[in-house]
Amino acid sequence: MHFHIITLFPKAFSSYLGESIIKRSIEDNKIKVSFYNPRDFTKDKHKRIDRPPYAGGPGMVIQAEPVIKAVEAALKRTKNKKLNTKIIFLSPRGKQFTNDYAGKIVGKYKHVILICGRYEGIDARVKKIFKVEEITVGLFVLTGGELPAMFILDVVARQVPGVLGNIDSIEERRVASSEVYTRPEVFIYKSKKYRVPKILLSGHKAKIEEWKKKK
């Protein structure tokens, strides 16, 4: 799985991609992440990419042309633009992102292009030129699309075979409880004993699964 991220702030991803499972997945070539900064595709000597919106309004709008060129640069790195590439336009007005949606991406596509907006947004003509799907990660508005892109990358990547190692680590493929416990069996905090639920110590698999479902 190759993630192509269109963003004005590629450094914002450095710490997250450089730790834990995602880092190992990149090192093991299970996933690949490439960045395309629209500033690198502008003709302006100051690399300016934003202008005031037509009809007025607060903030600035990212121009279409540098974003289009960034997407084209990403598409050039795919073998078949139509069949194996998904272009996602991150927007608070988009379709709700879910685990099921992530699973469909893994099953169908090899390349995912994530377009991260900023300021008042990106000139809408970008959406008209490319076959994009507007996606949101929640009912809230962020200052940019970088965090949503990280959410999507993480959720999709963990469903890529080999990323988690053990396929049972994917919670949606098994009964996962919202409560988990480990050693010690009993510990004391401010004179009060806190114990692991007895059912988890019983060894009775069916009853344990039933308890997990209730939780």
Automatic annotation (TrEMBL):
Keywords: Cytoplasm, Methyltransferase, S-adenosyl-L-methionine, Transferase, tRNA processing. It is an enzyme of class 2 (transferase). Coiled coil: none annotated. GO terms for cellular component: cytosol. S-adenosyl-L-methionine binds at residue 117. InterPro entries: Alpha/beta_knot_MTases, tRNA_m1G_MeTrfase_C_sf, tRNA_m1G_MeTrfase_TrmD, tRNA_m1G_MTases_N, tRNA_MeTrfase_TRMD/TRM10. It holds the Pfam family tRNA_m1G_MT. It catalyses: guanosine(37) in tRNA + S-adenosyl-L-methionine = N(1)-methylguanosine(37) in tRNA + S-adenosyl-L-homocysteine + H(+). One of its GO terms (biological process) is tRNA N1-guanine methylation. Residues 1-214 form the tRNA methyltransferase TRMD/TRM10-type domain. PANTHER family: TRNA (GUANINE-N(1)-)-METHYLTRANSFERASE. HAMAP family: TrmD. NCBIfam families: PRK00026.1 (NF000648), trmD (TIGR00088). Specifically methylates guanosine-37 in various tRNAs. Belongs to the RNA methyltransferase TrmD family. Homodimer. This is tRNA (guanine-N(1)-)-methyltransferase. It comes from Candidatus Zambryskibacteria bacterium RIFCSPLOWO2_02_FULL_39_14.
